[in-house]
Automatic annotation (TrEMBL), chain A:
Gene Ontology molecular function terms on file: ATP binding; ATP hydrolysis activity
Name this protein carries in UniProt: ABC transporter ATP-binding protein
SMART domains: AAA
InterPro entries xrefs: AAA+_ATPase, ABC_transporter-like_ATP-bd, ABC_transporter-like_CS, P-loop_NTPase
Organism: Aquitalea aquatica
From TrEMBL, chain B:
Protein name: ABC transporter permease
Organism field: Aquitalea aquatica
Keywords: Cell membrane, Membrane, Transmembrane, Transmembrane helix, Transport
UniProt family annotation: Belongs to the ABC-2 integral membrane protein family.
A Pfam family of this chain: ABC2_membrane_3
Amino acid sequence: MADTIIRASGFGKRYAGHLAVSGLDLAVQRGELYGLIGPDGAGKSSLMKAVAGVLSYEQGQLEVFGQLLDSERSAEAIKDRIGLMPQGLGQNLYGDLSVEENVDFFARLRLVPRAEAAARKEQLLTITRLAAFRQRPMKQLSGGMKQKLGLVCTLIHAPQLIILDEPTTGVDPVSRRDFWAILAELIASQGLTALVSTAYMDEASRFTRMSVLHQGQKLAEGSPAEILQRAPGSIVLCRAEPQLEAMRRLSAIAGQCEAMGPAIRLFLPDMSAEQARGRVSTVLAGLDCQQLDVLEPELEDVFVALLATPGANGQQAQTLAALAAPRQALDSSALAIEAKGLSKRFGDFVAVGDVSFQVRQGEIFGLLGANGAGKTTAIKMLTGILPPSSGSGMVAGADMKQAGALIKARIGYMSQAFSLYLDLSVVENIRLYAGIYGLNRQQTALRLAWILDMAGLHGHENDLASTLPMGLRQRLALGCALVHQPRVLFLDEPTSGVDPLGRRAFWDILFRLSRLDGVAMLVTTHYMSEAEHCDHLALMFAGRVVADASPHAMKQQLLTELGQLYQVRADNAAALVAPLRQAGFANVSPYGTALHVLTLETERLGMVLRGLGVGQPPQVRPISMEDVFVQRVGQLEAQKAAQKGSP
Amino acid sequence: MKADWQLAWRRFAVMLVKELKQLGRDRVLLAFIVYAFTADIFLAASGVSLSLNHAATLVQDMDHSPQSRELLSRFQSPYFRMDGSVGQDTAALAALDQGRAMLVLSVPPQFGKQLAGGQPTSIAMQVDTTNSVLGFLATSHAQQIVSQYGLESAMRRLGLDDKAAASLPTVQNDIRVWYNPNQQDSWFMGVAEMLNIATVFAVLLPAAALVREKERGTVEQLIVSPLSPFGILFPKVVSMTGVILCGVALSLFLILIPLFAIPVKGSLLLFFALSGLYVFTTAGLGLFAATIARNLAQAGMLSILILAPMLFLSGAWTPPEAMPVWLRGLMYASPLHYYLDIAFGVLLKGQGLAELQPAILGMSGIGLLVFGSGLLLFRRQFG
């Protein structure tokens, strides 16, 4: 019985003259995990709040459980069947109350009978594996645990529809996967319908169906497979030397063409795998082509393809062609950053322990790790803010122990908050940082022109920073960090909240900076898809660097250790998890309507699946950086738990 | 060496301009500053008065003799206002309870007869002293009126006239009123309020400016730049000091001097120089609040917590000599206490540097300590 739970027709919401959403149609059926995908400001939250009956709207109609939401009273009638989890980590919870007290509070608030509440609490805490932490105050939980507790509190009154607003934003990849697995389990076992939003494009394939939103408009709707068909074509991932020349040639034939570390990734619309391979080979003729893989497009490629305007791409190609030669001979062996056994202890707590790595001039270096892994502390030591407890380091040719001030003058720093003064205009922000770094009038004028060019800010010179869209704001912040032409640039989660188009433009600028100007960059990010843009990665766990290699090498290592990643499609995919695990396949996880299995035993997997009555053979999927991250951290956490358990 | 100074100056200049621009674009805060330094000071100077004015008085005359009428007629404005009479004791009490009257005067029966017969007699006065200052003033004024009347009727009974009274051995108290010849409350209240407002903003503005940067994350960007902690805080405090001095000038030249005729006996230059020193050093308290607070609301509440005792212990309401010993010690630690001495000294008494030396030394000492610890806290938090 597939009845409609949510139906919106021509839905629109306006805030003080600004249209957040307009003309939106969608229908969510019972039992669906329905996704709303889009960058910040796409209108996801407005729609979700309206569905929950906590926000009035101006245009169109909204029906929930067949009830037309047109007044306070009609909204009141459906509220006991709805659970809403607002955006932000633990936003609806009370920090000083324990896990159990939070759950009890929500149960009483919703007038759940005592016996029923107690039973549901036990069940939910067990599923979310929070039962061991019931006495811990909420504020001491990790981000992922907070979100799980939020989910328990949202579910305590047995709603039929749950609305989760960006439940995975700010949560590390391991906890994020855990959260999706738990959500899938709950939806199946409790007969729920869920409306979930996310800003991560790579989470899209977990939804039954979804709408892709952008600036209050719906770009596409359907199942992940249907949406992928909206922009048919092939992705080519290739490595060719010299990279700059390859980039120049390829960006002439493909609108979407981006550098991924030493590789290049491009989208060729309406081309089959064979056609794409042939086309790229022809274009790259004469270059040293080391690798050429053809992949299926991902949702982000489709999103960008649906949005992309020919004008913007033309501009990118031009700049690349114009700058196709390095301005100066680069000494790529020179070290920009060198950390040797860096440690930082706060009392007994080791925030960073014995961290060593090297970043060469002109290299993009990624520092990955969950919250609390020590990334920020490491950056603080390297930027000269925090003195290390032991160890040493050289940054931009200066010793970080003795020459903190010198380092500060030689590096650029851009943080996730895009530290701009929002009440100052574009030009005023640039002039301020120019003054702080001691540029004189002449130098300031030169750099101002350069930044306006680089960030595409012409026409916005006198706009206040607060009125700029996120993408422009981010590029302005980058410009301010580059005002004094630093040779080393630190970027702390620089792309949070920026839409995929803006992110691509941003990485394009970073690529040019590294290859043409030889700027060395140290980037932290929690977007695993972005880690693939780096030349080199270091993975941090519990204050230590546990892996230090190129993204390609990290993936290869995982392939040899744990095998290929297979996607298994079946009607009853969720029910297959347990039998597969029993059959000895440890790395099985539900993935949307399918299963993901990581294994070396390809043939045995096929056999076991046939034995379980699955007709379709498993398909090989490319391993992503997120797979690598989740596997590595999973192994380390298991080791740590074993160490704790043994003595 | 010259290049270093140039660099430092350039940094200082851009930071100063930035602070002033940011403040200039915060319309709400700007409006609040202008209001506080004009309208608020006008209200304080014209509205608040510490003297007895038209106290509502009821009489319960049970005698109705010429003597009682004469005595009661002496309770007159501007101190008292006759609001009629009451008959019963309960009615009198009810009038006090309900706040319709502040004083009830009861003249007993036989009052006139006893007085005429040469016997001592008394009248009853009930006073509402909820406001202890006004209650005290009402009592003492009434006492004066009654004793004057008693003296006169005693002399009349002895057959002495006004001429003879001069030959009696009475003591005349000749009062010379200095510095505020008409004893206008508006002078004291206006100036005191201006100093209070300056203090409030001296704490609040730098706290708000710093905590806003903390909230927004821009302070991180400044910390990784070559600016030193002093280089970040100094322009902030200088710009806020400038803004507050403009506010003080506004209230002095727009409100206090033209509307309340406050005389400026001393040097205005000295007054502004010392005000600048005071505001600059007091800003350290704001920095202190901003380092502890995590957001603007917390910083605001912390500032109030710091300001409340500072204002009460300033000596504006009670001089240190009248305080309990332990509070007196705290008073000497409040920079506002010295600033009050300085401001009243320069504006009303015409004091110069020589007379103000102890106050200036006290204020600078405490101020430097406060500013230094604010800077130290900031350095420790972000260093």
